[in-house]
Amino acid sequence: MKLPAVAMAAAFLCGIVLGLCPPVSVYATSRSFLVAGFLIAGSFVFTGILLTVVGRMVLAATSSLFAWMFLGLVGVCVAEQPRPADHILSLVTAGRIDLHSPLRWQGTLRDEPARLPWGIGYEIELAGVEYQNQLVPGVGGMRLSFSPHPDDSALPELHAGDAITVVALAKQPQVFRDEGAFDRRAYLASHNIDLVADLRAPDLIARTAAARTSMNTAIARARRRLRDEVDVLFTNRPEVAGVLRAMLLGDRSFVDREEALDFQRTGVFHVLVVAGLHVGALAFFLYWLGRRLRLSRSWMICFTLTLLFAYVAVIEQRPPVLRATLMATVVVLGGFFYRRLDLFNSAAIAALVLLIVRPLAVKDSSFQLTFLAIVSIAGVALPWLEKTVQPYGRALRGWRDVTRDAAHEPRAAQFRIDLRAMANWISAWLPPRLAAPSDFLLVRGIAFSFRIWELLVLTMVLQIGMLPLMARDFHRITLTAPLANLVAVPLTGVVVPFGFLTLGSAIISPAFARVLAAPLSWITLLLLRLVQWFAHFPSGSYRIPGAPLWVMTSFFAFAALLVLTMRLTHRWEPIRFALGSGLLACSALIALFPFAPVRSAGKLEVTVLDVGQGDSLFVVSPRGKTLLIDGGGAFGGFGGRNLQKGNAIDPGEEAVSPYLWSRGYRRLDVVALTHAHQDHLGGLTAILENFRVGQLWIGREVASQSLARLEHLAAERNIRVEHEARGQGFAWDGVEGEIFWPEISSAQAPPAAKNDDSLVLRLHYKDRTILLPGDAEKEAEREMLAENDGSRLRADVLKVGHHGSKNSTTEDFLAAVRPQVAIISAGEDNPYGHPSPEMLQRLETSGVRVLRTDRDGAIHVLTDGHALEINCFAGCPFPSGDALRQAQAPDHDKNNQHQ
What's the pTM value of the predicted model, to 2 decimals? Predict the structure, then answer.
């Protein structure tokens, strides 16, 4: 078997996939199922040994592969076991602790305190928590943030390994319960972060015991020193320091948002993520340096691996770094045994080790992209280059030596003959003293063009190979990526080793490090400027929904067959051409996405999205016209200091956009802003950037910088801005939209938005009505009641105003609307106490069924004008049909049907 590691890794992977399939996964946590898996795997191992003894090698190999498959299934069972009883989240679930009030937490600092753009960050390994005057032991991880205020006292001096206590209001990381939304809670859990908290004052954290000196604390302090050295060396170039922190040490905290977007738009964001490219560049540099130092093979391998492992320890053991380091280790050790390992086998060994340690890594997009990139390179790019340009590259060695022609294949030998003829012809036209330099320049120029071509082929194959997952997970198509990578990859290959040489010099000789820092700064700035230049190409990058399953399946089927045939002889050329054509056709479908969005024809749909403490609603008319109302926003409070400044979550990017992409939407007819508060406006920047928008509706104009920036962005993208007010409306496919509020005044725009500035919109479709009042409170409600009789405000579904504040949905307003169902958009455990108990009591007294995004996730309301259907992302707390029948208003059409 030429690729044994590939076969073993594939069998192990099949076992993992089998364990994750719904019919099997329901038994994954069963101990008896785990034991049975071990026994079956062991029986296959024993059978394989017996078959090997009797010489049945094919059957023995087959038995071995079945053993690997059942070990993969066992790995899933182990990974899916419930959390231990003393895990902090288990304690919360069991009700042994309550996270709704500040508690005193005990633990140990995992790392040195991290300097952040907005303050200081701590990662704590929890040991227990004081609850109701008792110490409750518990394990888990907490991320603590502190944003200093000028009046604050100094923080205590803390270091990695210190035992500490901290008083903080902890909570689970925010998660958006919407289709397609990024699961931040699961992402942080994979990094052993279970809780997040803000430190309100320096005196709420204290050291209870100093750290013991250990390898871990020494590495943590070395990591902190290297980060400090970057800041010191590039004090006058903060953008360079931020990029070098990311490229060398894996800390992207100081990379500006616009700079990060430029790297994403050009398809070179991998430059900022310490992974295979960086590890490979450093490993190659260390190997080259070992050869220049004339080390023996054994010492050179020890030298390379020791420094490489030290590098991994300093920048933290993140999965992409571990994957790349494992592969580099396999390749280097292969050289010790004078073996040139197949890249497939090297990757398979790394994948097998990683999956044994963490079987569920197979679900991580990072893991999938890494090995998809390797398969693209090893299965398509390298074989194609081997069949095309690489024989000519090898033919350049000793090209003047006629006796070596026979060692090359005929086409390469002919190339050498033609090259000598060309060189002789050029020499005949030049003076004798220029003949030798002309030969050198000719060969070097051809060799350089071959390298450029190889890099271009690699980047093109990588872009096509990773296209389905990039569209599915990141929703971005980057047309400039091949050209941008042509400059970014070589520059990264210079910056990484040169950067570590500079940082190493800073520890020994700061003066010499400052000398090296100047050219390093110039090279990094060149990289930044080139990325910015590529990023601003018109239509060089655009956002896209993920392709349908059948397209993805077809793509990977064509790709797998193409990889298989690339290792076969030239007789398979027509089949390879057909498979490549099919692959390119699937790629075009993914990149162009010529598919209609998913919608319910003939029905009005209103979806109240879960965007945390904010609002965002998506409306689809019976024939597909779309209206997005608000986009949520990273809300930091009115006038209070924003404790997460610079690291705020963007619901527009992480919740609203993914939801729209999951439905297959690329354009929106109208985006409406109810009022210019950040929890409604903040996410709309991402929406206007990610989608083609026809119109932007705004109610009352205010002197708000955020609103002005949004209107400026709309103007840049040729989006028509319209101001909507009371009395205006629209008619879409039988749906009548009427705006009840606000009343636009001719006076100068007020300096700040108010809740009562909100757009209040009523949607009426045949027998059904939905009322959407934004954040309107009692003053606006009183005005609407005065201007409209009860029948005009009547609605079947009410989106409760101002997230369920006690100042909205007053008794008189509720009596006029008489809704059957009320929907509240509020953040989980929000600091404002929304929805308020008083308002909930009013709804209960009125017999209204309540749905809440903080509990039920995204809430979908669908109607054909007669029946109402309501579904929730996390499951509605009542059957929708039962709820609506009981709450049916007496004046409704008796022929209405309810689901």
Answer: 0.88
